[in-house]
Sequence to fold (224 residues):
Amino acid sequence: GAGVSQTPSNKVTEKGKYVELRCDPISGHTALYWYRQSLGQGPEFLIYFQGTGAADDSGLPNDRFFAVRPEGSVSTLKIQRTERGDSAVYLCASRLTPGELFFGEGSRLTVL
Amino acid sequence: DAKTTQPTSMDCAEGRAANLPCNHSTISGNEYVYWYRQIHSQGPQYIIHGLKNNETNEMASLIITEDRKSSTLILPHATLRDTAVYYCIVRAFTSGTYKYIFGTGTRLKVLA
Fold:
């Protein structure tokens, strides 16, 4: 596809369940970012990948959150033992050179 | 990381210029200023960026003060479709990572 693709667009789960959110970046983009956006707030940085490795995971809130990018393309954000406070829109962005970030439409997670 | 401060909200009449200010008084010499906007339920969209000089593209103009401590995004002829949240971001280079740190943004409402 031409843009960053995120699936699912909406996910409703119960407290305590495990969730995976997928990001398919623009082809050839080596850098990939995950952000979390709560209602009325700006996007909050979670983690940054350069290629396959997590170059900066300082924004992950705790060890329930984990992300992978095994082949340097698609990335999966994994959340264990979900809590109601994890409810947010999770945004993925990619870029090629140090410059413009291209964002996906986000995955809206609701934890009941 | 450099922080940005923006007014919470602004109104602008359709067809008039919208001038959105941003303060980034702690910006470092090699840190760029980026502007994004987010229309309801969509991912952030890139508008423009700059380092020292004023910049213009088909969407907007960016005016950066000589001391680089503040900037203004100008939408020359605002339309109803420009109603969105506008984020001013400083792109920081920290520990080998380019980080794009969002604030809470300015909610611009364009009035008919």
